[in-house]
Amino acid sequence: SLMPFTLTVNGKAHVIDAEEDTPLLYVLRDELGLNGAKYGCGVGQCGACTVLRDGAPLRSCFVPASSLGGQAITTLEGLRAPNGTLHPLQQAFLSEQAGQCAYCIPGMIMAAAALLREKPRPTEAEIRTALDANLCRCGSHNRIVRAVQRAAE
Ligand code: FES
């Protein structure tokens, strides 16, 4: 059934007209034009679709958007400063050329953003643990870890 609901994304409230079981990822990409979060597996296994919910990582591919009213969703686009300046993580991932195919990178950055919010100076082991469940098929993990370390400096 169609039931409009309010969704707060990157600090802005949107009224969304979508089936109540529509995953957040689809609403972000198809309704709001926010393409940072990527569709990988669709079943919560790969992390390509990671966004933040009240600062914590959330896999947006299988959580209904209609269940997230009242919670603050942040996407990759929302990490930038209002004047467009890249978030330190975004800049560090570019500087370290952390992406190869880069499909996993938005999810990696969002998972890393959640980590740095909790622990501004994580150890390498803490970074690896935090990103362990975000899959990268290119084998870019070492550069990705370096990028997070650089952003934390
Ligand atoms: Fe959501 Fe893979 S697309 S976890």
Description:
The chain has two domains: 5-79, Roll (Ubiquitin-like (UB roll)), CATH 3.10.20.30; 88-152, DNA polymerase, domain 1 (Orthogonal Bundle), CATH 1.10.150.120. The chain contains five helices and five strands, in the order E-E-H-E-E-E-H-H-H-H. The chain has helices at residues 24-31, 88-95, 105-118, 124-131, 141-152, and strands spanning 5-9, 12-16, 50-53, 56-59, 72-74. A hairpin with a 2-residue loop joins strand 1 and strand 2. The longest helix is centred in the C-terminal third of the chain and has 14 residues, at 105-118. The mean pLDDT is 95. It binds FE2/S2 (inorganic) cluster (FES). Residues 39-42, 44-49, 59, 61 line the site of FE2/S2 (inorganic) cluster (FES).
Count of separate structural domains: 2
The percentage of residues in β strands lies in 5-15%
Termini Cα gap: 49 Å
Pairing-aware structural class of the strands and helices?
alpha+beta
Largest sheet: 5 strands, mixed
Q: Output the CATH class name of the largest domain.
A: Alpha Beta
Spatial strand sequence of the major β-sheet:
2-1-5-3-4
Question: Can you tell me the overall shape?
Answer: globular
Question: What's the gyration radius in Å?
Answer: 15 Å
Helices, by number, come to: 5
Any low-confidence stretches, pLDDT <50, length ≥5?
A: none
Quote the CATH topology of the largest domain. Ubiquitin-like (UB roll)
H and E string: EEHEEEHHHH
Pfam family, one: Fer2_2
Organism: Hyalangium minutum
GO molecular function, one term: oxidoreductase activity
InterPro entries: 2Fe-2S-bd, 2Fe-2S-bd_dom_sf, 2Fe-2S_ferredoxin-like_sf, 2Fe-2S_ferredoxin-type, 2Fe2S_fd_BS, Beta-grasp_dom_sf, Diverse_Oxidoreductases
